[in-house]
Amino acid sequence: MHVVVGGDIGGAERVVVDLATRPQQTGADHQVALITPNRRLAAYLEQAGLRVHDRGPAGEDPIAYLVRALGSSDVSWLAALLVAERIDVVHTHTFGSHVLGTRAALRARAPQLRTEHHVMHYTELSSSLFTRWAAARTDRIVTVSEYVRRAIGATAPRVADRATVVRNGVDTSYWAPRSAPDDADAGAFRVGVVCRLTGWKRVGLAIEAAARACVELVVVGDGEDRAALEQHARSLRANVAFVGYQADPRPWVARCDAILSTARDEPLGLSLLEALSMGRPVLAFAGGGIPEIVEHGVTGWLVRDATADAMAAALVRWRDDRPALRRMGDAARRFAVERCAVERMCDLYASAYRATSRPS
Asked: What is 2-169+342-356's CATH number, 3.40.50.2000, 3.40.50.1260, 3.40.190.10, 3.40.50.300?
């Protein structure tokens, strides 16, 4: 049972779909216990063919979190669901599910596996005590990158010591190379950002870099910072197209010569793996887990100085060397197929599920 508590359709939610739609490869039948205020997330999971137990609309503010995590109503609902469905392993994901999923798993006497998709909940005062309490009572921990495992180890070494790394994978058949759409200007140099428009993604730096390098930027995604970022682009007179959330971003990635990441300590970057699989090199700030999936000068370019000026310089360099950019794109595709295929991720989770479940 995957416990999904939150409002976004992000990397964690897409990993749930990748696992749950491959029962033969993961060696498990998957269900989802969902608590979200976002009906689009519920529809996303249901349209993927998942069996979803939907708790119904829920608040996402701190008060709602405390009531959900520390109260009895949602824990009782989830524990009863685990017992009724005879769940062998509870799989928790993002911060919102940690305490709730752990309490319910303990009550239902079901073992729990937890995937750490990020590290911020270990360092922020508002969440650290909650996530550490839950981690101490979780049977098995998986991290999406070596960076996440190391970063957790800096503040919670006992958690990191029993964590294993399972890198997110991509369906390389779905995320296959494709040509730019016919309506795309073939002569323009165009780069893209695919992410949620939230503070730590620092999309404003990508806008500034594109403006200084005089290149087109496509921003795929939505979020609380969108209006401010649109105003920022207008103030710089930058050539930026905000296309919003796209259930299928592949046509937009195909328009681009490269994909950017200006995030602060990106845990891994599923959208970047997808771009690599489509044969698009990645230009990214060299923080977090990015160096684990982007080889400098081979599948992309790592910008050491996390500034708009440094990213702009990289954009100018590759704008003027399209053949080299295409060679990096070819290498990116090979890397994704050989090292990051979703089948490999599923095999590793199958082993983790077997190791977590208890003999009947």
From this structure: 3.40.50.2000
Copy the structure tokens of residue 327: 């060679």
d(CA 204, CA 226): 10
Band of the pLDDT at 41, cuts 50, 70, 90? very high
Cβ-contact 268, 249 below 8 angstroms: no
Alpha helix ranges (H) inside 35-156: 39-47, 62-70, 73-84, 95-108, 120-123, 125-136, 146-155
How far is the C-alpha of 122 from the C-alpha of 129, rounded, in Å? 8
Q: Over the stretch 136-175, which tens digit does the pLDDT of each residue have?
A: 999 999 999 999 999 999 999 999 999 999 999 999 999 9
Q: What is this structure's pTM?
A: 0.91
Do 190-339 and 2-169+342-356 have the same topology in CATH? yes
Look at the chain and count its residues.
360
- The pair phi, psi for residue 168, each rounded to 5°, is -60, 145
Q: Is 287 helix (H, G, I), strand (E, B) or coil?
A: coil
Closest CA to 178 of 81, 129, 250: 250
Is residue 9 within 8 Å of residue 40, measured between CB atoms?
A: yes
End-to-end CA distance of the chain: 17
CATH placement of domain 190-339: 3.40.50.2000
What gap in Å lies between CA 281 and CA 294, rounded to an integer? 8
Q: Where are the domains of the chain?
A: 2-169+342-356, 190-339
65, amino acid identity: Y
C-alpha distance from residue 256 to each of 180, 218, 295, 347 (Å): 8, 8, 19, 32
The tens digit of pLDDT for each residue in 290-305 reads 999 999 999 999 999 9
Q: Look up residue 146 and give its amino acid.
A: E
CA distances from 213 to 9, 203, 207 (A): 31, 15, 10
Residue 281 · residue 300 · CB < 8 Å: yes
Tokens of 334: 């090979």
Other beta carbons within 10 angstroms of residue 317's beta carbon come to 14
